[in-house]
């Protein structure tokens, strides 16, 4: 399945994302007190390179890194690295090392809102109606009933008064955003951005960003965060190239917990089987991220991570692995999101997770994905579905593979008429039991909490 959105960067079909939240992973203070001596924590990411190579990822998504008040989404300045992570020089050195090691770099772009210490909002606080920035913020007015006690009210993100919504349709705001994006590309040679809260940003921003990024770096990639609704509202020609696939995210863990593979089968067929809704989009598929409970905590049966990661590696779209979840590190929200974004070294990832052997498994799965054109480019067709297993076909040009996923706690023998009269080879496990029974219909033993990937010849 070739991505059909115009000018979608060709490299995204081969991308395997590793998502890091640097403020958490690198152990930064939870609050930025203001002017402080920079701490070059960002450089520690270079020590992760051997681990990233072991996993087989080739693209890094770095959560918000620009100067902010706390969690990175309450931005102070879009062009200065948060001092809790270091200086701009530290960032340039780190990204150059990662690029030299073969990784593409994606940054989290927070263009919907800023923090109250954002330079423009500080000016409004000080100069009130005379501030040249008073038109930068959505719904801004001066009202003594302000819940923040400063006599200023404004639109927020999701009711959080610490997050001031920008008027991205305002020419000066657009210029600031565009200049910041251009700066990131020219100074740091990044390859793409994730647009935070893209579903609540004025959509007229998307063609502007597409045009600017395309001129500076033609292979630049833009994808957005959208939880609910039709993803085509923010992605497609002249908009974003792709979207975070929250529909499948829910289907992944829910199908395992409820022993109901019909749920994820329905979502995959709806999205990717022709004429699916999103066959033309570069969807980012994930089991967890910095905003939701970690998959190890979400699943009622911990071993369910194995068939889910196999599924993640084999469906259309771009797989994304959240740091720590490659060994099933747990994490749930408390009074805030920091438990989802813990400080972790590579060594701690391998010792704190419930399944440290998952690291090796993921490395094998991602290597197989990169070596299998059908998984990278192929279309999607559902073949069989049951409450505890799903089998689908990925076809590319004249070649096809069959993928089986089982969440059952015991091996299942599955009749496979799709293999009748064909030769085949097992790509995932060479010793996969396949037998022919009377009538020539092959039977496959589908392993418990695992699956198969079979290339079919002569079909």
Automatic annotation (TrEMBL):
The keyword Glycoprotein does not apply. It comes from Spirochaeta lutea. This is Glycosyl hydrolase family 13 catalytic domain-containing protein. Keywords: Glycosidase, Hydrolase. Residues 15-369 form the Glycosyl hydrolase family 13 catalytic domain. One of its GO terms (biological process) is carbohydrate metabolic process. SUPFAM superfamilies: (Trans)glycosidases, Glycosyl hydrolase domain. One of its GO terms (molecular function) is hydrolase activity, acting on glycosyl bonds. The lineage of its organism: Bacteria, Pseudomonadati, Spirochaetota, Spirochaetia, Spirochaetales.
